[in-house]
Write a structure and sequence with these properties.
elongated, alpha+beta, 8-stranded mixed barrel, 4-stranded antiparallel beta sheet
Length: 357
């Protein structure tokens, strides 16, 4: 996993360089993450979670969303019938939670969980856990996302009585439980257990996260920034969530933008990137160049202000994309263009959360 995370960090850096240097101006990936509502459960899917959901197999793999996005263990999460999505802003990655590991704890003493003494013939062997993949489960694992979606195998296949009392062949993985349903058409003979439902039945989550919503606009509504203010210099602007375009800043005309494809969220680890225009009286960040170290910045989330203190103000060239990179600690990054009328550089304001805010 360490090697995987290192590779993804390198890939992110490459993409950010492309973002700054590409001469093309193409559509932002905002459309890919547009919020949608599943009427079947009354819950939304949006932003990085929708991108990952669609890319890694969608409804047949993960099932319907069962909650809205909320903060759990210090990061945004969302539960689905068969999975938990986690936004790791410090890596700019969506990961599938280890619900398989959690569900497997009740079976730790079963012989199927004992590591194999030797790799079996005609199977894929994973020395990381000492288990193998074969037959239909192997085909399904490789065809539907592999390691990022399901994780390593934790057991060999074995007979298991599921929550409905049915006995069937299953195999546990870090992030899922595979089930064999031979009575189904070939495409649906391997299904995933409803580990998301099982986890939610056993663990308390915020009541509001379980309540159905009426509109896609409710997506991530309890945790995303909706306003940013700097009282001393009278900066006060709404904030929307959006993607970005290659070769150009993708900033709405009348409000600042929180860049969801790479950003952190207030109260969690990561780089909270918010950009806005400058240049004329009343423009979003018109007064931002007057900001100073020590100034208070207020970011509104779900109607509550979270306080930050400016720690650094600097000017960089447009290709200095390190300012967009993930951070291991909660960091607020405000960005606009300077000097006014020329816009050849980027003004970068870095702020840290105030303890107790």
């Amino acid at each position: 996993m360490m090697r995987y995370n290192t590779i993804m960090r390198q890939l992110l850096v490459f993409l950010l360089v492309v973002l700054a240097l590409s001469p093309l101006s193409v559509a932002a990936n905002t459309i890919a993450g547009t919020p949608i509502l599943f009427r079947e459960t009354g819950h939304t899917l949006a932003y990085v979670f929708r991108e990952f959901y669609d890319r890694q197999g969608g409804l047949p793999i993960f099932g319907y969303p069962l909650t809205e996005v909320f903060i759990e263990d210090g990061r945004p999460v969302q539960y689905f019938e068969r999975a938990r999505f986690e936004w790791h802003a410090e890596l700019a990655l969506v990961q599938v939670g280890h619900l398989g590991r959690w569900a497997a704890t009740a079976w730790a003493d079963h012989p199927a969980f004992a590591p194999l003494a030797a790799p079996p013939a005609d199977a894929d062997f994973f020395p990381e856990t000492g288990h193998s993949l074969s037959s239909a489960f192997r085909s399904f694992w490789w065809a539907n996302g592999g390691l990022p979606t399901f994780g390593f195998p934790l057991s060999e296949p074995f007979e298991f009585t599921d929550e409905s009392g049915q006995q069937r062949l299953v195999q546990f993985f870090e992030r899922a439980r595979f089930e064999w349903h031979p009575q189904n058409p070939p495409r649906y003979q391997v299904l995933l257990g409803h580990l998301g439902r099982i986890w939610l039945a056993a663990h308390p989550v915020p009541e509001w996260a379980l309540q159905a919503v009426n509109t896609p606009d409710a997506a991530w509504a309890r945790i995303r920034p909706t306003r940013v203010r700097v009282p001393r210099i009278e900066v006060d602007t709404e904030v929307v969530s959006a993607g970005f375009s290659f070769g150009a800043w993708d900033v709405p005309r009348y409000t600042a933008v929180h860049y969801w494809p790479i950003s952190g969220y207030p109260g969690t680890a990561g780089n909270i990137v918010i950009a806005g225009h400058v240049g004329y009286r009343g423009i979003i960040f018109n007064r931002l160049p007057a900001i100073a170290v020590g100034d208070e910045v207020l970011v509104t989330v779900n109607g509550v202000d979270r306080r930050y203190e400016v720690r650094e103000v600097l000017t960089v060239l447009p290709d200095e994309t390190w300012v967009l990179a993930p951070t291991s600690r909660e960091t607020l990054t405000l960005i606009t263009c300077v000097p006014i009328g020329v816009y050849s550089h980027r003004l970068i304001v870095r702020a840290a959360p105030v303890t107790g805010s």
